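Example 4.3 (complexes with small molecules)
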Amino acid sequence: MTQPAQGDACVMDAGDYRVLLVDDNVNDAKIIKKYFQMHSEAITLDYAPNAESCYRKLIEQVYDLLIINYTLPDSTGVEIVKELREIDVFAPIIVVAREDEAEKAVEVVEAGADDYAVKTSQGLRGLSGQAERHVEEYRKKFLTNEKFKERRFELYRNKNVYGLLSTLHNRNLRHVAPVVHTIHGYNTDRVPGVVSGDRMQKILNILTHYRVLHKTKIGMRMVCPGCGSDDVTSLFSCPNCGSDVFEKTRTRYVCEGICGERFADLKRVYSCNLCRERFQEKDLLFDPVYIYSVNDELKPEIGESIQSIRDTIKRHTITASEKKPEMKTVSNQ
Ligand SMILES: [Zn+2]
Ligand SMILES: [Zn+2]
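Answer. The structure with zinc ion bound is encoded below.
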C-alpha cells in the first residue's frame, strides 16, 4: 500500500470533531482510523463493534459523524440507519461497504444515510474528505434548523442556563471550566467564569448536546475513590499514628499525635473534604478535565435571546411594582 502524499493529507483543516465508527471488522476500523488521523489530529474517533454498543455510546456522547459498516453482527446498515433517523440523531451518517456489497449499499441512502463509501484503498482515502463535507453541512443545517433553534431558545429560558450564558455574554468570556482542582498544573484562575457542582455539570452537558458549547479536554483531576468528589487536598501524616499535627525541629518532625515519634520524612496522604476519607497516592482516581467554549456561530443568537429575556423580566418587574399600591388599597378596604 502506498502512503498518500503528505500534502494530500493536510490540504484541509478539519477542525475538531468526534466520529463514531461502527464496524465489527477490527482491521478495517484500524485502517479507517489511520486515514482520519492522517487527515487531522483534531479528530477523535470512537469505536463500536456492533449496533448495541453504538446505541450505548450515543447516550453518553454527542457525535458529529457516524460511520457504519453495511453489515453488523446484530443489525444491518439499512436497519440501523432507519432506527437512528427515527430517534432523531442529528449527525451525518456514512455507510461503508465491501466492494461486493457496494451495489446494494445505495439502499442505505434511501433509508436515511447521507452517503456511502466503498472499502477500497481509494474509497477509504477519500472518506475523511467526504466526512468533512458532511460535517460542515450539518453544522450549518443545525444552526438554521427550526426545530433545533426552538429547542435552544427553550433552553435559554432555563434560569440556570440564562444565568451562565448571560455572565459569559455580558463579560465577553469565551470559556467555562467546571472544576477547581487539576494536578497537571492547569491554573483555572486563568479561566474566567469558573463554576463547580453537579448541577452546573448537567447544564454544561445539555449545552454541549445542543452545541451551544464545545468541550475540549485540558488535563486530569484527582477524585476521591470513596465518593467521587474532586474536593481533595494533600497533607502530611504520621506514618505511625496517622496524626497530621507536627512540630518541626531543625532536623526532624516530631509527631504531636498519640505516638510522639520523630521522623526525618513525613508520609503524604490525600484527604477528601466531602466524605473525610483518607487515601494514598496509589489509590487516587483521575477524571478528565474539560473546558467549555462558546460556539462562536451561536453568539449573536445567544445575545439576542438574553436581551429578549431581560426585556421580559423588566416588563414583569414594572407591571408588578405598578400593581402593588393598587393591591394595598384593595386589602385595606
Ligand atoms: Zn504519630
Ligand atoms: Zn470522598
